[in-house]
Specification:
This is VanW family protein. InterPro entries: Glycopeptide_resist_protein, Vancomycin_resist_VanW. The two termini are about 35 Å apart. The chain has a domain at about 40-210. It has a five-stranded antiparallel sheet. It has a four-stranded mixed sheet with strand order 8-14-13-12, with no helix packed on it. It contains five helices and 14 strands. It is about 25% helix and about 35% strand. About 25% of the residues are buried. With about 270 residues, it is an alpha+beta fold.
C-alpha cells in the first residue's frame, strides 16, 4: 500500500474557481453521454431488505454551532426526496448528484457545515456528506459495483465512539465529486432512505434475498509522522460468507490516505495529564 502523502497545495481563489468551472463542464458532458444508463424509475419498497444502516442526525462537535446541524437536517430532507425509492435495474447506474441536482437557496437548501481543507466552514447544502457516507457504507454490503467514490482527504475527529472503520465513507461535492453505483447483477435493487426523528435511516432492497452476507474489515492501519504533521492510512477488505456463516472468500475494496487534523496521541496526552 502506497503511504506517501503530500500536503495539498493552497490554490488561489481564481485558480480554484477556474478548476470548478472546468471539472463542472467535464461532469455535465459525462452525464450527457451516460444519460441512457442512469437509474430514473421510482417504485414502492421492494420486498427484501439486503442491508440497512442508520446514523445519528445530531452530534456534539467542538467549535460547531448546533444550528448548522439543524440546518443539515433540512438539507437532508430535501435531498432524500430526490432519491428515496429509486430502483437500479440491471446495467443501470445510480448517480448521487445527477438525481439530487445542485443544492441552491431557491430549492430550499440552507447553510450547513462543510469541510474546506480540513477546517469547518459553512455553505449551501452543507451536511449532505452524511447521506453519501450512508449510501456508500450500505452499498459495499451488497453485490452492487462502486464505479466512482471520493475518499475524505482529512481525518478530522478522533476515534471516540466510531462504529465503522476509518475511511469507510464517501465525500461529495457538486457536481464532479459524485458517488456512482452500477448494478452488475441480474435483479433490481432499490435504495430507500428517510430522515427519522433522531437518525438518518437507509436500506438497499431487492426482489429476492441474497445467498451470501458481507463483512467489512480493516487491515494495515497506520498513523504516520510527516514533515508537516500526521497522516493516516488503511485498507478495507470485504469478507463474503454463505448462509451457514462459512467464509467463502475475501476481497480488497479500497485504500485510504488522509491528513490528520488532530494529534494521534491526543488521548494518551489527556490521560498523562490527568
Amino acid at each position: 500500500m502506497e503511504k506517501q502523502l503530500t500536503k495539498p497545495l493552497q490554490r488561489s481563489m481564481l485558480r480554484a474557481k477556474a478548476g470548478m468551472v472546468y471539472y463542472g463542464m467535464k461532469r455535465r458532458l459525462l452525464w450527457v453521454r451516460m444519460k441512457k444508463q442512469f437509474a430514473h424509475e421510482f417504485q414502492k419498497p421492494l420486498p427484501y431488505v439486503i442491508f440497512k444502516h442508520q446514523t445519528p442526525l445530531l452530534r456534539k462537535l467542538k467549535d460547531v454551532e448546533m444550528q448548522y446541524q439543524y440546518n443539515k437536517i433540512i438539507n437532508l430532507k430535501l435531498a432524500v426526496k430526490k432519491i428515496n425509492g429509486i430502483v437500479i435495474h440491471p446495467h443501470e447506474v445510480f448517480s448521487y448528484w445527477q438525481l439530487i441536482g445542485k443544492p441552491t437557496r431557491r430549492k430550499g437548501y440552507v447553510d450547513g457545515m462543510i469541510l474546506d481543507h480540513g477546517h469547518f466552514c459553512y455553505g449551501i447544502g452543507g451536511g449532505l456528506c452524511q447521506l453519501s457516507n450512508l449510501i456508500f457504507w450500505m452499498s459495499i454490503h451488497t453485490p452492487l459495483t462502486i464505479i466512482e467514490r471520493h475518499r475524505h482527504g482529512y481525518d478530522v475527529f478522533p476515534d471516540a465512539n466510531r462504529t465503522q472503520p476509518f475511511g469507510s465513507g464517501a465525500t461529495c461535492f457538486y457536481p464532479h465529486g459524485d458517488l456512482m453505483i452500477r448494478n452488475d447483477t441480474d435483479q433490481d435493487y432499490q435504495l430507500n432512505v428517510e430522515v427519522g426523528e433522531t437518525m438518518l435511516i437507509g436500506s438497499w432492497r431487492a426482489l429476492a434475498p441474497l445467498d451470501v452476507s458481507y463483512k467489512i474489515i480493516e487491515k494495515n492501519h497506520e498513523m504516520k509522522a510527516e514533515t508537516w504533521g500526521y497522516s493516516r492510512h488503511n485498507e478495507l477488505y470485504r469478507q463474503v460468507y454463505d448462509l451457514d456463516g462459512q467464509l467463502l472468500h475475501e476481497e480488497f475494496l479500497l485504500s485510504n490516505h488522509a491528513m490528520m487534523m488532530y494529534s494521534p496521541y491526543l488521548e494518551y496526552e489527556k490521560n498523562a495529564q490527568s
